[in-house]
Amino acid sequence: MTLTPKTIDQLYDTDLVAWTEQTVQLIRAGQFEQVDWEAVIEEIESWGRSDRRELKSRLEVLLQHLLKWQYQPYLRSGSWQNTIDEQRNRIADLLDDSPSLKSYSEEVLADCYRRGRKAASNETELPLDTFPVECPYTIIQVLDDEFLPGVVDF
């Protein structure tokens, strides 16, 4: 089945999986003139944005739980430990697949900490000023499987 450019454009707007399959077939068949190259470029760009968003989201959750671990030691649980481990594992997977994200994780640490700090305050019901304004952990500590922050004396 030969697809016209209009049909390919319609697929891109209505069924991304079908568009992807058809585009792969066209490229493998060497039918480059039928490929919607603008859509291909748009999709490739979106992969990087998606990985960056995922990294930031996972860092925020990880920082939130590190703060909870440190500031509410009497409530520590296996669930918190599992969340910390899970976020670190998924971040490690992202960094293995895209090593260039390692420097990005350093760039966004402060912003992720700000969000994680707010989430920790909301969840623990501790005042926001209970937690340091600046991230008390380095990115190396945050990503270190063995690192768990100590208890804070109030």
What does this structure look like?
It contains 6 helices and no strands. The chain has 2 domains: 1-35, no CATH class; 50-143, no CATH class. It has helices at 5-14, 16-28, 37-71, 78-97, 101-124, 139-143. The radius of gyration is 22 Å and the shape is elongated. The relative contact order is 0.12.
Give the secondary structure arrangement, pairings included.
Elements: H1 5-14, H2 16-28, H3 37-71, H4 78-97, H5 101-124, H6 139-143
Helix pairs in contact: 1-2, 3-4, 3-5
Helix and strand succession? HHHHHH
Count all strands and give the number.
0
List low-confidence stretches. none
Query: Helix- and strand-based class?
Result: mainly alpha
User: Number of helical runs?
Assistant: 6
Instruction: Please state the average pLDDT score.
Output: 91
Rg to the nearest angstrom?
22 Å
Please tell me what the overall shape is: elongated
- In helices, the fraction of residues equals 55-70%
- The end-to-end distance, rounded to whole angstroms, is 71 Å
**Main beta sheet strand tally, sense and closure:** none
